[in-house]
Design brief:
By secondary structure, the protein is mainly alpha-helical. The protein is 65% helix and 0% strand. Helix 3 packs parallel to helix 6 and helix 6 packs antiparallel against helix 7. The longest helix has 28 residues. The chain is globular.
Length: 194
C-alpha cells in the first residue's frame, strides 16, 4: 500500500511540474527580449531596461517622468500582456534586478564589455567611459522611481505586492549608493566652433 502511494505521489508531482512551469509568466514581451539581445553595449542596455520599467509604471498608470513609447514604435516593443497590479510590480522588481545583475557582471569582468566600433569617432570608446555612464543613467532612473514606489506603499497592498515594492526600493537605494563609488564625472569643455 505504501509503495503504491509513493508511486502515485511521484507521478502526480511529475504531471504537475509542467503546469507549474507554464504558470510562471515572462516579465518581458518577446519583442523586448529581442531589443535586449540587440543592446549589447552596457549604456544602451541600461537605457533600454529603464524604458521597459517605465512601460510597466505606465501600465500601472503611475507617472515616473520616463520615456514615452509613441504609437508608431509600439510594434517594436510589443504589446504588454494583460497583467495584474501585483504582476507589474513584480516585473519592475525583476527588471531592476536584471539591470543590477548586468552592471555587476560587467564590473566583475570588464574585458567582456562590448565597445563601439573603432571607426565611430563620436561614440565613447572605452569601458571607463561607458560603464560609469550606464551606472549614472540607472541611478537617475532609480531616483525617478523612488517617489512612485513610496507612494505605492501607501496604497492598499497585499503582502506580495508590498514585498515587491520594498525590494524595488532597496534596489533603488543600492543603485544610487553605487554612484558614490564611481570616480568624479569630468565635464569636457566644448570646443568653440570656427
Amino acid at each position: 500500500m505504501r509503495h503504491s502511494f509513493f508511486i502515485f505521489a511521484v507521478v502526480l508531482a511529475f504531471l504537475a511540474a509542467p503546469s507549474f512551469v507554464s504558470a510562471q509568466r515572462d516579465y518581458f514581451t518577446p519583442e523586448e527580449v529581442e531589443l535586449i539581445r540587440e543592446a549589447q553595449k552596457i549604456d544602451e542596455r541600461i537605457n533600454l531596461l529603464t524604458k521597459i520599467i517605465d512601460r510597466r509604471f505606465a501600465a500601472l498608470k503611475v507617472e515616473v517622468g520616463g520615456a514615452k513609447i509613441s504609437p508608431k514604435e509600439a510594434d517594436k516593443w510589443g504589446v504588454l500582456a494583460e497583467s495584474s497590479r501585483h504582476e507589474l510590480l513584480l516585473d519592475i522588481k525583476r527588471i531592476l534586478q536584471k539591470a543590477i545583475d548586468d552592471i555587476d557582471s560587467l564590473a566583475e569582468r570588464p574585458e567582456s564589455a562590448i565597445l563601439p566600433e573603432p571607426d565611430n569617432k563620436k561614440a565613447k570608446q572605452s569601458f571607463a567611459d561607458l560603464f560609469p555612464k550606464a551606472v549614472r543613467s540607472l541611478a537617475a532612473s532609480a531616483k525617478r522611481y523612488q517617489p512612485a514606489l513610496k507612494a505605492e506603499l501607501d496604497r492598499p497592498n497585499d503582502n506580495a505586492e508590498k514585498g515587491s515594492v520594498l525590494a524595488s526600493l532597496e534596489f533603488c537605494d543600492q543603485i544610487i549608493a553605487a554612484v558614490e563609488k564611481l570616480p568624479a564625472q569630468v565635464e569636457q569643455a566644448k570646443k568653440p566652433k570656427n
